[in-house]
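User: Fold this, then the next.

Assistant: Folding the first:
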Amino acid sequence: MQVTKLTTISFAVAAALAVSACGKKEEPAADKAAGGAPAAETVKIGFAAPLTGPQAHYGEEYKNGVTLAIEDANAEKPTIGGKPVTFELDAQDDQADPKTATQLAQKFVDDKVVGIIGHFNSGCAIPASKIYSDAGIPMIAMATSPVFTSQGFKNTFRSMTSDTQQGSVMGKFVVDTLKAKKVVIVDDRTAYGQGLADEFEKAVKAAGGEVAKREFTNDKATDFAAILTSIKGVGPDVIFYGGADAQSAPMAKQMKRLGLKAPLISGEMTKTPTFLQLAGKEAEGSIASLAGLPLDQMPKGKDYEARYKARFKMDVATYSPYGYDATRALIQAMKDANSSDPKAYMPVLAKIKYSGVTSSNWTYDDKGDLKDGGITVYKVEGGQWKVMQTIGGGAASAAPAAASAAQ
C-alpha cells in the first residue's frame, strides 16, 4: 500500500512540473482554434428557396445576397454571450413546392437552426411558417402574400413589402397615372399571383377604374392564345398579370403577336433580366413594380452593387439586396440580445432598428410587415428596365421619369 501511495504522489509531482514547464495546463484541442484562441461556436441559419426548376434564378440570386451577408458578418469577428461565433448557412432547395417546403421546415427544426431566411414563395412560406412557429424559430421571408403575416404568429417577418402595399400602389397608378379606364386581370392561382391580383383589383376599383374581365391560368402554362383572344374582344387599356416571368414573358410576346395594344403590367417577379431575355423585343413597353428604391438610390446600393459583382461575377438582379438585409437584421437581433437562442432574440428582432442596403429604417410593425414600404414602377424602354416613378418609402429623393399614358 505504501508503494502505491508513493507512486501516485510521484506521478502527481511529475505532472505538476510538466504544467509548470509549459506555463499552463494543456487545453483540449476541440476547445481551441488556430493560434490558441477559443474555437468559435457555430450558429446555423437556414435558407430555403427554389434552387432548381423554372424559378431557380430567383432563388440563386436571393441566396447570393444571404451568402454575402453571412460572409460580411463573419469577417467582423462577431461575439455573442462573450464568446466568438461563426455564422453558417444551411441552404436548401424547396423547389417552389409547398409539400417540399414543409418537409424542409421540419428538417431545419430537427437540425436546430436558430433562424430562417426564406421561404421565397408565399405558397411555401405560409404552410412552413406553422412548423417554425410551433418550434419558436423566427423566419424572415421574401413571401409577399398578406396571409403570411396575418396568421397571428409571432415568428413571421418580411424582407419586402406585402401584396397589399404593392397591389394598392399599382392599382391606383394605372388609373391615376396611366389613365386606364378598362382593366383586365390574369393571375396564376398561386398564393403570390392571386394575392397580388386581388389587391390590385381592389385598388383599381377604389380609384374609379373598371375591371372588365378577370382570367386565370397556372404557373406552368406557356400558351395564352385562348385567354388573350378572349381578352382582345374587351378592348382593355391595360392587362395586369399576377405571376412569375416564366409566364409573363411568353404572355407579353403573344399579346404583341395578337395585336393587343394594351401594355402588360405585373409585379416584382416580372421585373427581372430573365423577363427581358425571354420576351425579347416584345418586352418593350411592359411595366412592373418592385419594392423600395432603385438600386442606385438605395442607401448603400452602390457599394452593395460593386461588392456583389466582385464576389459573384454577375449583376444584381432583383432579390439579393433584400436577402442581404434580412440576414443582417437577423444577426443584429442576436447580437443585440446577446444570444442566438430564438426565444431570447425573437422579441428583439420584432423591435429591430436596422440601417441596411435597401433601407436606412428597416423596422417592423406588430404583424412583421416592414414599415418603410415604398414601391418603384419600371417600364421596358430600349430593352432595359427604366424607372418611371417611385412612390413612398423615402421617394422624395428620387427623380422619376414622366409616366406614359396607356395607349
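Now the next one, as you asked:
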Amino acid sequence: MIKKILLISGDPYSVNTEIIFKTWKKINYNTKNKIYLISDYKLIKTQLKKLNYSLKILKVDNINQKTKNDCLKLINVNLKFNNPYNISKKNRAVFVKNCLDKAHHLASRSESIGIINCAIDKTLLSNQKMGVTEYLAAKCKVKKDKEVMLIKNRNLSVIPITTHLDVKEISKNINSKKIIKKVISANNWFKKYMRKKPKIGILGLNPHNAELRKKSEENKIIIPAIKKLLKLKIKIKGPLASDTVFIEDYKKFDLIVGMFHDQVLSPFKAIFKFDAINVTLGLKYLRVSPDHGTAVNLIGKKKAKPDSLIKCINFLHKIRK
C-alpha cells in the first residue's frame, strides 16, 4: 500500500491556498497520488475562485479511497465562515485544531508517511507560547524536552533549545538535562533518517560566551551538558560564540544548536532566505512545515512562493523510499 502524505491547509487567513495551488501544478504525478489535503472543501473552492485559479478537488472519506491522481483529494473538516478571508479568530482556532487533531489521528495509525502543515498563526493555539511543535508533542504524549524544532536544508540544520519564549524567560528555561535530551533526539534523528552521525556545534547563551565566567550559563549549564554528550560518543563542539559562527565556521557542522529561537533562526534565514523546511523531531510520526508565516500582506496578490512547501513534500516523498 502506498503511504500517504497528509497536508493540512493551515490558517484560513493566509496565502496557504495560493501556495497549495502553485505546488500542485509543479509536483509530479506519482507525488500527487500520495497527497491528501485536510481542510474545508467550501473554503478551498471559494478561495481558489477568488484567485481565479482552477483545480479539480475531490472530497474523500478516508485516505485509502481510490481516486484519479489528477484530483486533489480532500478530507473535509468544517469551518464556519461567510467571507473566505474574513473569518473570526475563534472559528479559525477551532478549525486549525480540528485539522491538526484529524491529521494526528491518521498519522498515529501509521497510515501516512507524515504530516505537512501549512502556515498557522500560533496565537490560534491555546497558549501563545505554544507552536505546532509543542501542540503535536502534547498530542503524542512525548516526554518533556524530547520534542525538537529543527530547521533544515541540504547545507545546514539548526535547532533552538527554547522556542517561543520572551527573551527575559530564556535563561531560566535552560538546563543541562534539557540540552542533553534535545541533542540526543536530534542525533538519533540524523542517524535514522539522514543515515549519518552529525557533526554538531553548540552555541553559548551570552555575548562572547560571558567570557566563561564561573557563574555564567556557559559554565554552569552548557559545558556540563557538552561533557555528558561527549561521553555518549556524540560529535559535539562548543560552546561556540554566536556572533561569529555564522560567518564561516557553520560550514564545518551538520547541525548548529542554539539556546533560543532567534539565535539560530535569524542568521539561518539571513544566509539561506526561505530555502528550508521545519521538521519536528521526537513525535510518533514525521511532521514538517514550510519555513514561512501566513504572509497576510500577500493575500490575493498572487505573489506567494511555493518553494518551501514543495521542499516539504519532496522530503517526505523521498525519505522512506
